[in-house]
Amino acid sequence: MCNVVCRLILNAKTTKEFKEKIEDEYRVNMILDNLPLVVPLRRPDQESSLVYLHGFLVGLKGQYAGNKDEKHFIHNHLTFVVKYHRDPVTEFSRIVGFEVKPFSVKHEYEGEWDENTRLTTCDPHAKKIISGTEPPQEVEDKKEIIFTYDVEFQESDVKWASRWDSYLLMADDQIHWFSIINSLMIVLFLSGMVAMIMLRTLYRDISKYNQLETQEEAQEETGWKLVHGDVFRPPSSSDLLCVYVGTGVQFFGMVLVTMMFAALGFLSPANRGGLMTAMLLLWALMGLCGGYSSARLYKLFKGTEWKKITLKTAFMFPSIVFAIFFVLNALIWGQRSSGAVPFGTMFALVFLWFGISVPLVFLGGQIGFKKPEIEDPVKTSKIPRQIPEQAWYMNSVFAILIGGILPFGAVFIELFFILTSIWLHQFYYIFGFLFIVFLILVVTCAEITIVLCYFQLCSEDYMWWWRSYLTSGSSALYLFLYATFYFFTKLEITKPVSGVLYFGYMLLLSYGFFVVTGTIGFYACFWFTRLIYSSVKVD
């Protein structure tokens, strides 16, 4: 009860620092037996459910009744509640909860201050405890602050194994189901469209094309069959496409495996930083798949210098990400924040990249290049066809921007929760939902790209390679725009450095999203074009 920690006389410097921390809503975080300290809050709409906030605020701003001036008050008394569970067999107890109620109290005492001074505001002998009705402790120059705390031990029914459950409790899982049903509607609609194209149009087209007997009918071919001599012509900047597809495969593999582990419960938040470590390690290991897929595609484009393409795959995406990350980290470091990544860790990251990822990309590239070349279902003609004038709605920029809306729509509600957990101190631990949403995203990206690719080929435009990548990849643009919207509506960030950090990290997230969704779209289209052109007879 009412244990005195220390007595502090403020000077101008400490007063200014405390006021800044209170202004910026800094929180104090503590850990007891690997459990983070939380402030339990009742939700106004639901009396029964508690929301846990990470850490407690350094202090508050407020006014005295009848006074307009805003004052800064510091939380100098903490009432800790440590919950424990007693094992009936062994009689030992284990900690299962760590909560705090912070108070601001202007402590008083009689006489001069020394080691044995008893406070009059808070005295365990006189059974006087802090209730929150006492006058608060102001932060002003030359004032004294006495820091105190109580610890109360409460027996709890929560078993040690399930002590994280209350932290990870999802208060409103209905909205996630709603979001999933909403996304499934999009998927059903698109699947219906893809099925219609496949069955009606293709079946009719293919049977019609294969029955063209007379020469005159053969000359009146229309639609996608006309471009059969050009559809597998390598695109411009084919090297870059190979690099991006390889990177996308690497990223996709990392996300997929991480999510599977997380959904099965291997990456518990009790294991601090487990998620990040797992992702970085998987990124390095997935270099094998990245190198393999970029080399296979490069060989299809009749490329010969596989080492060059493998080098680009190993360095292009990571170096851009690392450069942005390094600049952001330098900014945090310049602010003397404890959130900066130390140089040792930076060195470990570089080692992971050069020592594990790069050699694996090379190995994958070599295996991929040694494999026999993928056969094209139709021969490519010597002279490229002229592409006819396209209608305004088939314009590449318009089609690409339209293609990104649906994949973004499928993930956008879940994205809100992820952003909230990253930027607003909440736990995000609904990987089961996230995994379903991820699968929906994959299907949506694939289907929208196939539909738009088919319309493009029907209007005799055979430049589908890059377009298929960008169509679903453009959802990353919407993701970044949404992050911008979220910044201005939900966050109150005033410091320029914090703003730069937010946009820097969101840029990295969007870039990763672009690579993954683009690759999904590209492979869907790649499969689709091979499928339809392999089923028609060509003279």
Automatic annotation (TrEMBL):
<feature type="transmembrane region" description="Helical">
    <location>
        <begin position="273"/>
        <end position="293"/>
    </location>
</feature>
<protein>
    <recommendedName>
        <fullName>Transmembrane 9 superfamily member</fullName>
    </recommendedName>
</protein>
<keyword id="KW-0333">Golgi apparatus</keyword>
<comment type="similarity">
    <text>Belongs to the nonaspanin (TM9SF) (TC 9.A.2) family.</text>
</comment>
<feature type="transmembrane region" description="Helical">
    <location>
        <begin position="469"/>
        <end position="488"/>
    </location>
</feature>
<dbReference type="GO" id="GO:0072657">
    <property type="term" value="P:protein localization to membrane"/>
</dbReference>
<feature type="transmembrane region" description="Helical">
    <location>
        <begin position="241"/>
        <end position="267"/>
    </location>
</feature>
<dbReference type="InterPro" id="IPR004240">
    <property type="entry name" value="EMP70"/>
</dbReference>
<feature type="transmembrane region" description="Helical">
    <location>
        <begin position="429"/>
        <end position="457"/>
    </location>
</feature>
<keyword id="KW-0967">Endosome</keyword>
<feature type="transmembrane region" description="Helical">
    <location>
        <begin position="314"/>
        <end position="334"/>
    </location>
</feature>
<feature type="transmembrane region" description="Helical">
    <location>
        <begin position="392"/>
        <end position="423"/>
    </location>
</feature>
<feature type="transmembrane region" description="Helical">
    <location>
        <begin position="340"/>
        <end position="363"/>
    </location>
</feature>
<keyword id="KW-1133">Transmembrane helix</keyword>
<dbReference type="Pfam" id="PF02990">
    <property type="entry name" value="EMP70"/>
</dbReference>
<feature type="transmembrane region" description="Helical">
    <location>
        <begin position="500"/>
        <end position="528"/>
    </location>
</feature>
<keyword id="KW-0472">Membrane</keyword>
<dbReference type="GO" id="GO:0010008">
    <property type="term" value="C:endosome membrane"/>
</dbReference>
<feature type="transmembrane region" description="Helical">
    <location>
        <begin position="175"/>
        <end position="199"/>
    </location>
</feature>
<keyword id="KW-0812">Transmembrane</keyword>
<keyword id="KW-0732">Signal</keyword>
<dbReference type="GO" id="GO:0000139">
    <property type="term" value="C:Golgi membrane"/>
</dbReference>
